[in-house]
Amino acid sequence: MTYTKRLDKRKFDETRPIEAKVGVIKNADGSARFKIGNTVALAAVYGPRELYPRFMQNPEKGILRVNYNMMPFSGHGNRVRPGPNRRSKEIAMVTKNALLPVVDLSEFPNAVVDVFIELPQTDAGTRCAGICAAAMALADAGIIMKDLVSSVAVGCIDGTVVADLNYDEEAFEGIVADIPVAVLPNTGEVVLLQMDGEMSKDNMVKALELAKKVCADIYEIQKKALKEKYTVKGDKK
Length: 237
What we know:
The chain is an alpha+beta fold. The chain has 4 helices and 9 strands. The protein has helices spanning 86-99, 126-140, 167-170, 201-230, and strands at 18-22, 30-36, 39-50, 63-70, 111-121, 150-157, 160-163, 176-184, 189-193. The chain starts with 17 loop residues before the first strand and ends in a 7-residue tail after the last helix.
């Protein structure tokens, strides 16, 4: 069996429609909304603020904490059980590790920056959408950053490399590999690489090349969203 036509009629290297906006949560220090297809991620940043209990403080620099949560009726199939679970903790950890290389908290000893990611609606690619939203929210909060982080899931369905799998493709009856990737756009450094499934070495190389290409496009969308908020009216630059 060969996957010759995508279920939603997209090209193999085409993502679902993407929308991005910052400053969407009034009382947060920084916030963002990132939508790809039917997956929606909201990110809110609070801090830097003093960290309690004090034994957790780092006197040399601030720390970053990430919380990831899918709302109970956000996705396909059964209701998601509220509260932390093993999957949400794992995604929070990999999200934090993807963001740490770009965040500079050296000027905030004994402080914490909290990032909260909520998924009110999901259709695959949730961790990647969360990373994109979180990076934009950190920038919106004025946190010193060396770069943004852009992320997308690529994969292989019956030997065909595709960008941005949706839920139906993840559940396709065949050999499916799903690969979440996060990239620092200005250096090309890969800060997240996971895989669920199996694929050939050649297709893995193709998938990574595709992920970098798509992340470059996502980066432009993230930048545009930030510029739209902070560009002074009448400034054409």
